[in-house]
Specification:
By secondary structure, this protein is an alpha/beta fold. The protein has one domain: Metallo-beta-lactamase, Chain A (4-Layer Sandwich), CATH 3.60.15.10. Helices cover 29% and strands 23% of the residues. It has 7 helices and 13 strands. The strands form 2 sheets. The protein has a 7-stranded mixed sheet with strand order 1-2-3-4-5-6-7. The longest helix has 20 residues. Bound molecules: zinc ion. The site of zinc ion (ZN) has 5 residues, from loops.
Length: 245
């Protein structure tokens, strides 16, 4: 069984794996009265099966939808296990269609292991045979609000350098915001030198109605943590500007 963390009345998460070599992003679970909505799918079929089993064991309502924060493999590749519709913005749909056409999967991840032999991937030959990219059946553009019984999810396409399709998912009743990887730098394979967090984006996302901010690869943050990061990044930027040459 996986160890889940409860964040608020309706929200649980499987926290990101602390070992970066596992590239296991945070998975959110929104437990409405009669259905469970996943925020991102997990990075493998094996993890998705464990998520399914853990939710069943805790008596959570059946999983009804998976909402993607963006198209990257570590957020989407577990989706085919659940057999439920995926929700994402139009651009995620296009990017995942492109990945499907280019057959992005086993070879793509194997190349990553060649580059970083310490990478841990939990995929068996059977899993690859079963694997398919799940395209979003429900798409939106810009902003949308979906109602799942007693819980509403506000979706907002924010884009950014990490992935053009990044979406922020707000659990309205609970004041919890899922950020995906939206304020992160570009992935290393796209731009190895880009290391700056997108502070302007993070500043814009701060909203007094939301107390908890959950991104893909760090621990959940309360508003004061976000403000602290913003201050330290601003200081870094200033130091960089005044750095003697
Ligand atoms: Zn990502």
């Amino acid at each position: 069984m996986l160890k889940l963390t409860q964040i608020s009345p309706h929200v649980w998460i499987l926290p990101r794996h602390p070992d970066k070599n596992r590239v296991q992003a945070t998975v959110g679970m929104v437990l409405a009265a009669d259905q469970t909505i996943l925020i991102d799918a997990g990075n493998s079929l094996q993890l998705a099966r464990q998520i399914q089993a853990t939710l069943a064991a805790m008596g959570a309502p059946p999983i009804s939808h998976v909402v993607y924060t963006h198209h990257h493999w570590d957020h989407t590749f577990g989706a085919c296990v659940y057999g439920v519709p995926a929700v994402a913005n139009r651009l995620s749909h296009d990017l995942l269609t492109q990945m499907q056409q280019e057959n992005v999967g086993e070879t793509f991840l194997r190349t990553k292991v060649e580059r970083n032999p310490r990478l841990v991937l939990n995929w068996t030959a059977e899993d690859w045979a079963e694997f398919e990219i799940v395209l979003p059946e429900i798409t939106y553009e810009g902003r949308d609000c979906l109602h799942f019984g007693d819980v509403s999810l506000e979706l907002e396409h924010v884009g950014g350098v990490h992935a053009a399709d990044s979406t922020v998912i707000k659990v309205v009743q609970d004041g919890v915001m899922f950020l995906g990887d939206c304020y992160y730098p570009a992935p290393r394979y796209e731009n190895p030198t880009d290391q700056m967090l997108d502070m302007a984006m993070l500043t814009n996302l701060l909203d007094e109605r939301y107390d908890t901010y959950i991104d893909g690869h760090n621990a959940p943050m309360e508003t004061r943590h976000v403000r602290r990061i913003l201050r330290s990044q601003a200081l870094l930027a200033r130091l960089n500007e005044t750095r003697p040459t």
